[in-house]
Specification:
Distance between the termini: 31 Å
Largest sheet: 5 strands, antiparallel
Number of helices: 3
Radius of gyration: 15 Å
Number of strands: 10
InterPro entries: PEBP, YbhB_YbcL/LppC-like
GO molecular function, one term: protein kinase inhibitor activity
Keywords: Protein kinase inhibitor
Strand content: 25-35%
Protein name: YbhB/YbcL family Raf kinase inhibitor-like protein
Pfam families: PBP
Order of helices and strands: EEEEEHEEHEEHE
Shape: globular
C-alpha cells in the first residue's frame, strides 16, 4: 500500500497548517484538510481507516495529539480530495480529535470531530498519517475515539503505512 501526500519543500503546505489564511480556520485552527491518495490497497481489504497524530506534542502537552481520525473508507484505492473532512465526499465516519477532550473543551463543536490542522508551538513537528487496511468493516458513528479505533482494529490489520508530514512553526 502506498500513501502519497504532496509536500512543499518537504513540508505539509502552509494552507493546511497554522499558516493558513484566516478564512480557512475555525477557533484559530486550520480546518481545510490536505489531499492525498492511497494506492495498491491489498485485494482483501474491507475497510480503510486513518489517523493524523502528533507524537512531538508529548513533551508539550503530555500526550499524542490527535488531529484527524477517519474510518469507513471503502477498501480500495482512493483519492482523498482537499477539504474532504469538511465536505465528506467519500461518506466516511470521523472520530474525535484532541479538541473534543478537556484540554480545549470545544465539546461537540464541528471542529472537534473533523480535521484540526497542525499548529506546532516551535520548531518542526512531524505529524504522522497512519493508514490501516482492515480485513473487516467497522461500525462506528461520528465522534468515536482513537482508543476505540485501536481496540477494534487489533488483529484485523492487513497492512499499515505511516507517513511523516513535517510542519514548521
Amino acid at each position: 500500500m502506498k500513501v502519497n501526500v504532496q509536500l512543499d519543500n518537504n513540508r505539509l503546505p502552509d494552507k493546511y497548517t497554522r499558516h493558513a489564511a484566516e478564512e480557512f480556520k475555525q477557533n484559530d485552527f486550520p480546518i481545510v484538510s490536505f489531499p492525498f491518495s492511497i494506492e495498491d490497497v491489498p485485494a482483501d481489504t474491507k475497510e480503510i481507516a486513518f489517523a493524523l497524530t502528533d507524537l512531538d506534542s508529548i513533551p508539550v502537552c503530555g500526550f499524542e495529539w490527535i488531529h484527524w481520525l477517519v474510518a469507513g473508507l471503502d477498501g480500495k484505492d482512493v483519492v482523498v480530495p482537499e477539504n474532504a473532512s469538511q465536505e465528506n465526499p467519500l461518506h466516511w465516519t470521523q472520530g474525535n480529535n484532541s479538541s473534543a477532550g478537556h484540554i480545549y473543551n470545544l465539546g461537540d463543536q464541528p471542529i472537534s470531530h473533523k480535521y484540526m490542522g497542525p499548529k506546532p508551538p516551535s520548531g518542526v513537528h512531524d505529524y504522522t498519517l497512519t493508514v490501516y487496511a482492515l480485513d473487516q468493516k467497522l461500525n462506528f458513528k461520528d465522534g468515536f475515539w482513537y482508543n476505540e479505533l485501536l481496540h477494534n482494529i487489533e488483529g484485523h490489520i492487513i497492512e499499515r503505512v505511516k507517513v511523516d508530514l513535517p510542519v514548521e512553526n
